[in-house]
Amino acid sequence: MAAASNPFHTILKTLPKPAGDGDFGTYYSLPALNDPRIDKLPYSIRILLESAIRNCDDFQVKKHDVEKIIDWENSAPKQVEIPFKPARVLLQDFTGVPAVVDLACMRDAMNNLGGDSNKINPLVPVDLVIDHSVQVDVARSENAVQANMELEFQRNKERFGFLKWGSTAFNNMLVVPPGSGIVHQVNLEYLGRVVFNTNGVLYPDSVVGTDSHTTMIDGLGVAGWGVGGIEAEAAMLGQPMSMVLPGVVGFKLLGKLRSGVTATDLVLTVTQMLRKHGVVGKFVEFYGEGMSELPLADRATIANMSPEYGATMGFFPVDHITLQYLKLTGRSDETVAMIESYLRANKMFVDYSEPQVERVYSSYLELKLEDVEPCVSGPKRPHDRVPLKEMKADWHACLNNKV
Fold first, then answer.
1. Calpha distance 342→16 (Å, rounded)
2. Can you count the helices (H) and strands (E) in the chain?
3. Tens digit of each residue's pLDDT, the chain (403 residues)
4. Cβ of 337: how many Cβ atoms within 10 Å?
5. Where is the Aconitase/3-isopropylmalate dehydratase large subunit alpha/beta/alpha domain (predicted)?
6. Which H or E run includes 302?
7. 6: which residues sit within 8 A by CB, 6+ positions away?
8. What is the pTM (predicted TM-score) of this model?
9. How far is CA 156 from CA 98, 161, 167, in A?
10. Distance of alpha carbon 302 from alpha carbon 313, whole angstroms
11. In the chain, is it the N or the C terminus that has fewer CB atoms within a 10 Å radius of its CB?
12. Residue of 77, 103, 82 whose CA lies nearest to 91
């Protein structure tokens, strides 16, 4: 779609490279709107706002949709609906096969109508990770991985053959072969773009996936959550998703974890607090100086548990720790420089060395990280938290409890 037909084409700005040699591309600049309400918006809502501005065509995404998001503080409590176009779609092999089958059927139909079937492609990038086909037949031996992989290929020959065809037949589709890792790990370490550069236009990465734990990517500052197959297919074909403009719970983290306290202890504590607070249908956004030392692995673990505390996502805005992780996982210096430049220019980057502007949240929670104590979960449900020191009493109580 031509940029000129977008009512916001006047705020399209060029992003210069830090060294002054050329530029990274153009972007829709939120500061150029000169609206003081934007500075108070949670970072997660700014991603929805940028998407609405960039995709505004007064047909699928209208100008008043953009206004609703800018006025989030007043419009979110009213449960208004907004359209959202995610930047990409993530599939795994169980839920991804039907999506590829549907695309293949559309090509068949196009052929029968005498049209060009090669025109049928996903309109947004689709990444499909084959990871749900593994059964462990062989364990505790040197060749276990190899033996399991061979059985996996024998059992899933038809499915894998079809997906391999799909990987070359369609544009905009990447298929990550079996044995590469689990979908969420591949998403974090390899697929997550953080900032896209498509034909010279820069914009934040966002993703919907056909797995409820797609939320793990929120630890990387990429807005993402799990959806059903129908919604994922609609997003693949360029349809906006209709969603209620969510409330955002601001979760402030202070201090740092004591030594010997693990990410699991932190996650169980955070999950317990959020379940008690009630966050269904909401975004949770983490902030505060405790974030400046919270490693990305811990963030991803907290984000991954979003379905357990019921939030749409547990979002960690991009900061220097995110950039360190991107370098650690082999993203090029040029890419990381582009990501940082874009997010700083568009007021989506958190810099703990600067004074923090207070953002407005729908409700607030606070946790001093040094208060987190070692604990265990279960025995039945992953989110049940039992402090280690109460474990004996809890165990005895469980013995006599009804199932």
1. 9
2. 15, 17
3. 455 589 999 999 999 998 888 999 999 999 999 999 999 999 999 999 999 999 999 999 999 999 999 999 999 999 999 999 999 999 998 888 999 999 999 999 999 999 999 999 999 999 999 998 888 999 999 999 999 999 999 999 999 999 999 999 999 999 999 889 999 999 999 999 999 999 999 999 999 999 999 999 999 999 999 999 899 999 999 999 999 999 999 999 999 999 999 999 999 999 999 999 999 999 999 999 999 989 999 999 999 999 999 999 999 999 999 999 999 999 999 999 999 999 999 999 999 989 888 899 999 999 999 999 999 886 666 667 888 888 888 888 878 877 6
4. 15
5. 67-394
6. helix 296-304
7. 54, 56, 57
8. 0.92
9. 15, 8, 16
10. 10
11. C
12. 103
Closest C-alpha to 292, from 337, 351, 341, 333? 351
Structure tokens, 271 = 């999950």
Would you say how long the chain is, in residues? 403
Distance CA 240, CA 37 (A): 25
